[in-house]
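Quiz preparation item.
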């Protein structure tokens, strides 16, 4: 991109930024990711072919009793009650390909670091092509917002995976990123208790349990009232890679309950009530066309770039499943995050536009 083109884009964004600022009601943002969570379960509930395969589901009868139903709509409500009884009624869902709603990775790699880079920088960088702990060279939307008036020191991330300080480049961005079993250096007694618990808890997947990550993020929100909170869950991806479909489903159901708990809390706090948007999404999809590939993702898995987004907040109309005339892409999340707060974020490379339907347009 030429310097002149960059200047023109920046100038146009500056001019139109005022309209976003006037229209949006969102003052705070909560972003939650469910690593590697397939859209197939989000929109269809348990997969009948995988759940009866004892290679992947050790107790099919129990899982079927918990989450099974003859109708697709009922199955998904059992697995994700908050998504379907709250967000689907009061907000929006994108990515149900059986109902004309399509969201994809723009990056070619279809695994975690490239996906999270795309979510937060708006740029599917071909040089971000591994999960190695390398400091991300790309400016992310959170560090951009942190430089705006009223947001300095008001952004925090709590993550189960210990690669996030590198993904969000906390050294350069200055964003507080609490990752895996980082110590919680705060005076709040609840945070001190969670800190003690996380070091004593079992680590069956080698990382901090998602429930510990959640409680750390929740208690931080209660104590310090950040303007932006990011919580990144990890268990769904790890259990899927292990081929444990029952545990993958149970973690997904538990994370839905955490979303419900968080949203209830947010609506009970005056600083957040009716002023906060919640965005829920994932970094990549998984295989489905070949059922054995549900455990995997990456460049060799044809349908692993199929993802989903859910949103609820004062600017997002209550339209349920939003049909898309053309595919939406993960790279559009970053400018949408900025636009919800009245800012224009232009990636350092490439171009990506906000999802206007999330902004009430």
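Solution:
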């Amino acid at each position: 991109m030429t310097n002149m083109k960059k200047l023109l884009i920046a100038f146009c964004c500056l001019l139109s930024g005022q309209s976003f600022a006037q229209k949006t009601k969102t003052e705070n943002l909560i972003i939650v990711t469910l690593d590697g969570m397939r859209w197939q379960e989000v929109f269809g509930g348990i997969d009948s072919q995988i759940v009866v395969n004892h290679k992947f589901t050790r107790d099919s009868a129990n899982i079927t009793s918990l989450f099974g139903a003859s109708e697709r709509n009922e199955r998904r409500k059992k697995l994700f009650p908050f998504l379907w009884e709250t967000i689907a009624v009061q907000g929006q869902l994108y990515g149900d390909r059986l109902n004309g709603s399509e969201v994809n990775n723009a990056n070619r790699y279809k695994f975690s670091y490239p996906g999270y880079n795309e979510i937060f920088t708006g740029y599917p960088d071909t040089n971000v092509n591994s999960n190695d702990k390398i400091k991300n060279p790309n400016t992310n939307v959170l560090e951009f917002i942190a430089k705006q008036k009223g947001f300095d020191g008001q952004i925090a991330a709590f993550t189960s995976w210990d690669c996030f300080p590198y993904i969000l480049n906390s050294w350069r961005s200055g964003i507080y990123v609490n990752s895996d079993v980082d110590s919680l250096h705060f005076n709040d007694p609840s945070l001190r208790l969670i800190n003690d618990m996380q070091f004593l808890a079992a680590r069956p997947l080698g990382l901090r349990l998602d429930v510990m990550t959640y409680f750390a993020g929740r208690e931080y929100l209660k104590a310090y009232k950040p303007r932006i909170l990011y919580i990144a869950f990890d268990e769904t991806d790890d259990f899927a890679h292990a081929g444990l479909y029952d545990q993958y489903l149970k973690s997904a159901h538990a994370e839905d309950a955490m979303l419900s708990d968080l949203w209830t809390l947010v609506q009970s706090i005056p600083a957040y009530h009716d002023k906060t948007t919640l965005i829920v999404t994932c970094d990549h999809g998984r295989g489905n066309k070949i059922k054995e590939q549900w455990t995997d993702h990456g460049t060799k898995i044809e349908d692993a770039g199929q993802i989903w987004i859910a949103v609820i907040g004062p600017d997002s109309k209550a339209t349920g499943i939003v049909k898309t005339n053309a595919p939406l892409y993960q790279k559009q999340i970053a400018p949408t995050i900025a636009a919800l707060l009245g800012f224009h974020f232009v990636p350092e490379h490439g171009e990506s536009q906000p999802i206007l339907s999330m902004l009430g347009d």
